[in-house]
Amino acid sequence: MFTSMGLAVNDPNHGFCRDCLTLQRTVSRRCERCGSPRLVQHEELYRLHLAHIDCDAFYASIEKRDNPALKDRPVIIGGGKRGVVSTACYIARIHGVRSAMPMFKALEVCPEAVVIKPDMEKYVRVGREMRAMMQALTPLVEPLSIDEAFLDLAGTERLHGLPSALVLARFVQTIEKELGISASVGLSYCKFLAKVASDLRKPRGFSVIGEAEAISFLAEQPVTMIWGVGKAFAASLERDGIRMISQLQKMERADLMHRYGVIGDRLYRLARAEDDRQVDPRRDTKSVSAETTFDIDIASLDDLAPVLRALSEKVSTRLKKTDIAGRTVVLKLKSRDFKIRTRNRQLGDPTQLADRIFSVGLDILKREIDGTRYRLLGIGVSDLSDAANADPPDLVDVRARKRALAEGAIDALRDRFGGKAVETGYTFGKGHRGRPTRPEEDEGPELQHPWERI
């Protein structure tokens, strides 16, 4: 099989060792060379080339890398007792800590945990380093978030002198040595199953789902394994008596679409392991946003407005750095009982300006001031496009041009002297109230679905 690449012929059922990458001559439970039990063996091992790579507890892993004293301790990345968990290391997860769990609950189940506020700048830097390493393997890299991506390695065997499975195993070794983080790999023939496979044996997993076994494998799984089936939809399916994918496999497409609309077609196809989507490295960012959770619930517009201004400036900065603009402003609020309100307004032209984002967001926010106390506030823009057509001169509002020029001058001063060099009237003298207290937000184009972080 590998003769053209200068390698000895290897039976895929013998596989290779993930630790020393030695090809195995026989079926065994341990590596013939180093004795490691971490072997990859599968009859389709050397025919598959579509992978999903997902880092293991990415933020927590970076913090442990940078502070070895945390190695054996439970670590939670989040902010304050009022915040939520961004991520938790696997030690904390054993105690029951989960992403998006309110911080007070996380500390109840794991009181000995070390809580660290997110350092998004550092995480993004590491994520970009890893992505550059992925792109050295193949140009077909489709990021899903800061720490995960699809890769299609079809046709790269001659370039690397190795089949895709071995290239991926070598890659995760490399990021462990050079970046100090670990990742899990899912290898299959389609995106759906590659992503499913990467979740099977975390952390440091390497799982393979072949075409021959796909339908039988899925038949044994709950419907929640299918993309788009969250808690609410799963409850709806259960009310109809559908809990397992095997039940969907026995149903007709027309019946599923009659019951559930367009998503019924997705249920039909994915239950049968049919997924023809290609890895698209040009996949567009859907939105750019920033949000924060307060230490105390806030109901007053006077208290919310300074935070909204600071968040608008964060969004504006990211838009300008990536040379994109958004046409729809989206406001997000979470009340003290964890109910989420999302409101949006479309603009006549795309914008990058903090002043414009804030002005529209403030107008929307005023309509939501009804005595409700809010624990979270977020602002973002969607309907993204190139910045070339952003913020054209306004012939009606003659002061808009002056405000845009003033914002440009403020940006220049902040670039030179730091983000706190200039403050607006909304944030000046407000202390932490004028700035996010828990920066659990997306980093612009690094995240495709920032609102889903909560």
TrEMBL record:
Its cofactor is Mg(2+). It catalyses: DNA(n) + a 2'-deoxyribonucleoside 5'-triphosphate = DNA(n+1) + diphosphate. Its EC number is 2.7.7.7. GO terms for biological process: DNA repair; DNA-templated DNA replication; error-prone translesion synthesis; SOS response. Binds 2 magnesium ions per subunit. Pfam families: IMS (PF00817), IMS_C (PF11799). Residues 50-230 form the UmuC domain. It is an enzyme of class 2 (transferase). Monomer. This is DNA polymerase IV. It comes from Manganibacter manganicus.
